[in-house]
Amino acid sequence: MVSEHSDATNAETAALALKILVAGGFGVGKTTLVGAVSEIRPLRTEELLSEAGQSVDDTDGVDEKVTTTVAMDFGRITIRSGLSLYLFGTPGQDRFWFLWDELSQGALGAVVLADTRRLEDCFPAVDYFEHRRIPFVVAVNCFVGARSYGGDEVSRALDLDQGTPVVLCDARDRDSGKEVLIRLVEYAGRMHTARLLDSVG
Hints:
Layout: H1 4-14, E1 16-24, H2 30-37, E2 46-48, E3 67-69, E4 73-80, E5 83-89, H3 98-104, E6 109-114, H4 123-131, E7 136-141, H5 151-158, E8 166-169, H6 174-200
């Protein structure tokens, strides 16, 4: 007879935790997205913007932003029974990019948040994940007052590889953020399976 303790141990063993990065330009909503979807109190490493950083941080279009992530954001969300995602929000400024290589180790994939008012700000993140063959989706954070664009238009503007998903979202809304993460997990799963089949074929 199998004990209840054995059942609990088997359930814990079967649980899968996947590492996901949330990247994008300065002020695009990475901290907001992680905080909105996380079922635990998110870890944040935000500091107040200083006068010293004004010469290097481009705040055009995000004038009301008063803090910035200096290391990472961290949160966790359970997608379904046995599947949890650990979310790591990356810092957006160039001077913190040395952290990206460390954060990307072991990641299943990434969400690249985009703001159509500052679309060029997500080019570095797109290039980073393409060059390292890390599957990613582009999530367009639909800011109030920003002109709306379709996924195909954003895909062409960013010159994305064919098949890279582009989804519209509201980083403040938990359900919207969760849908983005589900799309990423599905896409990354297909990409990793295809690469595995290629390697053995």
